[in-house]
Amino acid sequence: GGGGGGGPQQQQFVTLLGVKSFEEAFETTDRVILESWQRLCAYLEMPAAEVFFVLHSLLSRLAEFEQGHVLNVQGQLSVDQRNAWEAAFDRDLVRPLVQSPAQARRDVMAAVDGQAAATLSVQRQVEERLSTEEARKMYACMDASLWRYVRVPSKALLLRALQDSEELRRKCAFLWYALQNETTLSALPSLFALVRWSNEVKARLSQRINRKESRILSVRDFISKQSEEERDSLRSMFDEFCDAWTVVREQKLVTAVMQFNDSAEVAEETCTEIAELPAVDENTPISMFCVSDKDDGAYLYSAIMVLSNRNNSLLQSVAGSAARGRAGLA
Asked: 12-16, 170-174, 195-199: which range is least confident on average?
């Protein structure tokens, strides 16, 4: 109701807050809550989203905490008893959550997933209670949508939705492909840095040194032999190569090295399994970066072939999805 009217509960609420009307009481409450929330975020020096998860996780653990810190005291607590309880509350409950907001988020999301049915039930009850005009005026602050169960969007939920729906997989064919091959796709940008550095080495050394000389010429010596104005750009290019090489190496995308053997009576290409690609730095012989299907250059050759084949698979998937009108990119 408006003005100072309304039922006994509304009048009690208005009197308690020392305001003139029920509407003003809600405005005052909203303002106090917002100001308190902002102060809490500033005090904890955390984003609002993290504070949200910390508070909800704290409330969910509060009953368990109280069971372990029962105060068997008749009457008023002494200062020492109150201080001891507050110290335990801070040490055992608040501080661990503030120091690990990621864990608080996991706690809350697990609880939300587990209570979906209960939340939907509450939503239906609220909607029924607010079904009349009189009830909506009485509970003006209780928007039923506030009780609606809404999952926080995540990659895991998207993947689950695609797994559960063949129709959705057809409509979003490329998205389905990308999620299935996420690790591979994340490494594809490395292809450019690998090819650019190897092309630079080839352009500067091809027909200038033989294979034996390339095995004793380090990257550091190779760069130092270039003109002064070129050295910085070459070092930067090599650093980008090293970053890309690390991505391919750590993801273990290359599990076998392809080599061409022309020393036998019949030339053949062989594959040798490897645990991981060798590490590289400025002391590495330049022969490692001379793309070849023989000797040291076979490692880089194999890495480029793996990434190129996967890049081609990606392009084929995009082209096929687009041709069917279901690229799933919108």
From this structure: 12-16
Task: Give the model's pLDDT for residue 267.
Answer: 47
Residue 11 near residue 19, CB atoms below 8 Å = no
Residues sharing a CB contact under 8 Å with residue 36, sequence separation 6 or more, in sequence order: none
Residue 23 Cα distances to 14, 19, 132, 141, 144, angstroms: 9, 9, 19, 10, 19
Which pLDDT score is estimated for 164?
85
Task: Find out whether 302 and 254 touch, Cβ atoms under 8 Å.
Answer: yes
- The pTM of the full predicted model, rounded to 2 decimals, is 0.50
pLDDT for the residue 284 = 94
Task: Give the 3-state DSSP-derived string for the chain, with helices as H, strands as E and coil as C.
Answer: CCCCCCCHHHHHHHHHHCCCCHHHHHHHHHHHHHHHHHHHHHHHCCCHHHHHHHHHHHHHHHHHHHHHCCCCCCCCCCHHHHHHHHHHHHHHHHHHHHHCHHHHHHHHHHHHHHCHHHHHHHHHHHHHHCCCHHHHHHCCCCCHHHHCCCCCCCHHHHHHHHHHCHHHHHHCHHHHHHHHCHHHHHHCCHHHHHHHHHHHHHHHHCCCCCHHHHCCCEHHHHHHCCCHHHHHHHHHHHHHHHHHHHHHHHCCCCCEEEEEECCCCCCEEEEEECCCCCCCCCCCEHHHHCCCCCCCHHHHHHHHHHHHHHHHHHHHHHHHHHHCCCCCCC
Place 266 in a pLDDT band, splitting at 50, 70 and 90. Answer: very low
Query: Which residue type, as a one-letter code, is found at position 258?
Result: M
pLDDT tens for residues 212-263? 888 899 999 999 999 888 999 999 999 999 999 999 998 888 887 866 555 5
Check if the beta carbon of residue 253 is closer than 8 Å to that of residue 304: no
**How far is residue 153's CA from residue 155's CA, in Å, rounded to a whole number?**
7
- Is 298:292 a contact under the CB 8 Å cutoff? yes
